[in-house]
TrEMBL record:
This is Bidirectional sugar transporter SWEET14. Pfam families: MtN3_slv (PF03083). It comes from Sesamum radiatum (Black benniseed). GO terms for molecular function: sugar transmembrane transporter activity. The lineage of its organism: Eukaryota, Viridiplantae, Streptophyta, Embryophyta, Tracheophyta. It is found in: Endomembrane system. Belongs to the SWEET sugar transporter family. Gene3D superfamilies: 1.20.1280.290.
Length: 227
């Protein structure tokens, strides 16, 4: 059932004719793990069940990888081929050759078994880190944000109470219609009085100017000699 879990993912890839940013790492790692367990099963006796399960896993994971390579873009296809070369060719080949030639026959099964166990544990604990780390960071920042909110939530209220403008009562002047009309009439009377005072000053000034002109003419006229 574990090997069949990626079927919905590859169905989406088949419908949209693209890998949609999915990574091939889980399928390559699963293929490498299944090959390791098959190699361990061949070194032990009475391991038919292990061989059967992991053989099916190798077959399914190979189909997944071929399917992925067919629909993946060029860049992701090259990365997948590099990963296959490193894990399957170099990694698995190194384990097989080193345990076959450098380890005694009686210890080969135990050594390969420990390698399979360590690799499975690493995959089990490392794979969820991409989910655990972002959520741990988000949880930490969320707790910090809530602590800051609880600490400073009353700061704005205290600052508003200290402002002197809040203690000054606001007075609104309301004028009735009768008072407004009286006020306008008083303003009109003041304007008329100022206009009249200005008009009285103008004739007086003109009279003063005319008398001054006559006086100057008298002074400038020649005095006739009496005969």
């Amino acid at each position: 059932m574990v090997y069949l879990s990626p079927i919905p993912t590859f169905y989406q890839i088949y419908k949209k004719k693209t890998s949609e940013g999915f990574q091939s790492v889980p399928y390559v790692v699963a293929l490498f793990s299944a090959m390791l367990w098959i190699y361990y099963a061949f070194l032990k006796s009475n391991t038919t069940l292990i061989i059967t399960i992991n053989s099916v896993g190798c077959f399914i994971e190979t189909i997944y990888i071929c399917f992925y390579l067919f629909y993946a873009p060029k860049k992701e296809r090259v990365q997948t081929l590099k990963l296959l070369f490193l894990l399957i060719v170099c990694g698995f080949g190194f384990i097989v050759l080193s345990t076959h030639f450098l380890v005694k026959a009686s210890l080969q099964a135990n050594v390969v078994g420990w390698i399979c166990l360590v690799f499975s544990l690493c995959v089990f604990f490392i794979a969820p880190l991409c989910i655990v780390i972002p959520n741990v960071l988000g949880f930490s920042f969320g707790v910090l944000q809530m602590a800051l909110y609880v600490k400073y939530k009353n700061a704005s209220k205290t600052s508003e109470q200290k402002l002197p403008s809040d203690n000054i009562p606001n007075h609104i002047i309301v004028l009735e219609d009768g008072k407004i009309s009286e006020l306008t009439e008083q303003i009109i009377d003041i304007v008329k009085i100022s206009a009249l005072s200005r008009s009285d000053k103008v004739p007086a000034a003109s009279q003063m100017n005319s008398s001054g002109a006559e006086a100057s003419q008298v002074q400038n006229s020649p005095v006739k000699s009496q005969v």
